[in-house]
Amino acid sequence: MAIARRNPVGAAAACLLLFAALVALFGPYAPLPDPETPDLVARLQPPLSRGADGTLHLAGTDQLGRDVLARTVAGARISLGIALSAALLAGTIGTALGLLSGYRGGFIDLAVMRLVDLQMAFPSLLLAIFLLYLLGATLTNLVILLVIFSWAGFARVARAETLRLRSAPFIEGAIAVGAGTPRILIRHITPHILPVAAVVAVLDFASVMVAEASLSFLGLGVQPPGSSWGLMLAQSREFLYAGAWWLFAVPGGSLFVVTLCANLASRWLQELLAPGA
Asked: Which of 70, 89, 101 lies closest to 150, judged by CA?
């Protein structure tokens, strides 16, 4: 509670982020129209309009008469699911490599850090476009590429923390009583790194969401009949000049709010997990 009072904006952002996750998780059970059922009679209806059958469209309808709010909720499951999967996988791989690199040093450290430098030297978006064009724009390929472009940040943070901790008295004591490398890494160093990695994961979650939306907007991410916020933004372009602003505003606003909340919540999480908080 004290942390929430010190940083009410971050606490509110964390609550909104949790609400977005719950909406994505339980969206299929909400009393909303089918997001994929077209109704050409009710196409491009503005927000708060009603269809011929009396259905209230809170966020309007799209070019095929589909409910925009229902599609946004359905898109949340894909957009947030991709971002969460990529952040967790990248965090696991990057943290493990950073731990090993920082603790063992030598050739392992050199190899991992050169991989980090190599990955960070490439223009990520251009490389993703090229690889998705070659490999195919599937959800699996998209998640794999997002993981490849995200693990390096975790590795650098984990390595830095491991270098700081490996000469600590409690590590030297563990070595003195015969603890092996796996036990030291898992039982003694990892618990100290997890709070920092959690903060990086929340920030990475936001950046991965933007990256997925960018690729889907360009037609190389989520493909129809799937629905993500980036794909909805791409499909709304040609109807903006027709005055259908809600096609862009609803998914775009959702993307903006979630990424903003993730960035604000990361600071709150850092304070929450800080020693003595």
From this structure: 89
